[in-house]
Specification:
Oligomer: single chain
InterPro entries: 6-hairpin_glycosidase_sf, 6hp_glycosidase-like_sf, Glycoside_hydrolase_63, MGH1-like_GH
Number of strands: 10
Strand content: under 5%
Shape: globular
Structural class: mainly alpha
Number of domains: 1
CATH class: Mainly Alpha
Strand order of the largest sheet: 3-6-7
Order of helices and strands: HEHHEHHHHHHHEHHEEEEHEHHEEH
Number of helices: 16
Radius of gyration: 20 Å
GO molecular function, one term: hydrolase activity, acting on glycosyl bonds
Protein name: Trehalase family glycosidase
Helix content: 40-55%
Domain Mannosylglycerate hydrolase MGH1-like glycoside hydrolase: 36-419
Keywords: Glycosidase, Hydrolase
Amino acid sequence: MRAAREAAPAAARHAALELLGRNWTGTHTVPAAGLYPHQWSWDSAFVAVGLRHHDPVRAQTELETLLAAQWSDGRVPQIVYDPTVADEYSPNAAFWGSTRLAAARGRATSLLVQPPVHAWAAWLVHTADPEVSRRRRFLERVHPRLRAWHEYLRRERDRGSGLAAVVHPWESGTDNSPLWDDALARLPERPGASPPRPDLAHADAAERPSDREYGRYFWLAEHYRDRAGDDGDPEPPFAMEDPAFNALWALSEQALAATARELGLPAEEHERRAAEILAALEPLFDPVLGVYVARDALTGELVRRATVSGLVPAAVPGAHHAGAVVAAALGPRFLGSGAALVPSYDATAPDLDRALYWRGPAWFNTTWLVAGALRRHGHHDTAARLGETMVRLAVGQDFPEYVDAWDGSPHGTRGFSWTAAVVLDVLATPTGDRRP
């Protein structure tokens, strides 16, 4: 019996590592072969977190490759395009034209960013094998780049509230979330050029944003591109303060404090900034919903919808209202609805869609973040159950991009890298505490 119990985790670990090996290019890991053939920013951070248990040098390389494409203004781009790959992804490198911009330093990248999880990921990678990390001077080399990345957010994206605003839904990582509906409704539906939809060759149209939504996404992308990624627009068409994006920024500031202490540098600045971000998140807490909500930085209005983004702040040590947020995660809007994994949207909402991108289904990375918050606040059994379910659904269904939160049926593309990375972390640290 004991041998059988040990065999299952070993098989899951082998399957996850095999997938990540297939998606490895030699310098980075693609999110999924076919649909996502380049390097994505926060995907690589999650991949590094999972790989650190088995190949810390490759985990370090994953982050180093991404940071090598950092712009001179400090931004870490959402996508780093691989020039050796047929550029069928939309929008492609030619759409953005970054190679013509001095700030991009000749690299083909998106002009947008993604959630700042990188400093946290780098710290976790370091702690997995400090000896190898110190020998390679990993933290010493990435620390200046991570500082510049955070400084970019503070300097260019804070519109006076102490929080960073995203200028496109793609920057949040939760592209099609209901949090963005009202702000997107103000935008034109038709971009200058009709956007291609290669995503529909890899996933059912019922699981992806509509053509109308994509039209607005592309119009907004064109607007930002035509300004060459300049964040100085006093009246941008879209600027939203996302609770998950900013909570992960605070978590990464805490990780930078730990990194500074490891390097013998002052840590107080990072500790202070982490505390300031958490304090700035306070007005986004909705006591009725029990979660943090988004705020339109242009109108000041709160978007009172309960999404998984509003649960992520509970994963940050020292977060305010963590107890209430954990209760909401366990309540009828999320896990208390009978969900197997954490739904991306309020289970009681009339417009819940169990198959549509970020409007109901569960993602492995966000469930992993919420499971960490539950464990930190004493809900070890629930966190363990989520971990077991993630492993079972991932391995049994070829590592899907996301799943139905209730019956676990797979959606999106298959062979998804961060799904495999989360499995590796769950298997390696089932009861661990990932605080900086």
